[in-house]
Design a protein that fits this description.
The chain is of the alpha+beta class. It is built from 5 helices and 9 strands. A hairpin with a 2-residue loop joins strand 7 and strand 8.
């Protein structure tokens, strides 16, 4: 008996490969979110926060900001304390997570290590990293940061995120907010950046 081979349409095989690639990409994105949120829930300080590496990166990040943003230098001089996150990673698909460790400076010395974690919603894909510097202008905002429950942006002290446009309008006589923040990456300040809902917690070790 003669066997007959049935040829699979070429377009069908291409469609299967496309669907397979999409499923693989979605799986990788989901795994990245799980990893970020898992690490964000860890209560202990990572090893990197216990050596000079993180402090050195934080000082370099702060110096880079001050060198390019004159207002940042004035804020740092007047601030009660300055919190620097050299590298915050943000990744996800539909639901995103962000995570990073930072150093709190007061009177040019290290006053503690902190963790930042947050969740954002909406269409988003891929991953990016950025830096964050927060100037706590009074003792009340500093105490809120150091509270046992942590500091959540949008609850308690007022936080103003500065971009290129807003930074040009702020003067020494209009510095009335509790906290000023710069969000920036390799290309400079990020316009329209928001920190609403971000949770910052002291790392104890």
């Amino acid at each position: 008996m003669k066997s007959t081979a049935i040829a699979r349409p070429e377009g069908h095989s291409i469609q299967l490969r496309v669907r397979g690639n999409r499923r693989a990409a979605m799986l990788r994105a989901a795994l990245s979110i799980v990893a970020i949120l898992t690490f964000a829930g860890l209560p202990h300080a990572p090893a990197a926060a216990q050596d000079y590496g993180l402090e050195g990166e934080a000082r370099w990040t702060l110096n880079r900001l001050v060198a390019t943003q004159p207002l940042a230098g004035m804020l740092h001089q007047r601030a009660y304390a300055t919190l620097v996150f050299p590298d915050i990673t943000k990744a996800g698909f539909l639901v995103g997570g962000e995570y990073g460790n930072g150093v709190l400076f007061r009177r040019n010395g290290v006053a503690g290590y902190f963790n930042l974690a947050g969740v954002s919603y909406g269409f988003q894909a891929g991953a990016q990293s950025y830096s964050l510097v927060m100037f706590f202008m009074n003792e009340w905002s500093w105490r809120a940061l150091s509270s046992r429950d942590g500091f959540q942006v949008g609850v308690g002290p007022s936080v103003v995120v500065l971009d290129e446009g807003l930074a040009r309008t702020v003067t020494s006589t209009t510095l009335t907010s509790d906290v000023y923040a710069y969000v920036f990456g390799a290309q400079g300040l990020m316009a329209g950046a928001g920190l609403q809902g971000t949770k910052i917690t002291r790392l104890n070790y």
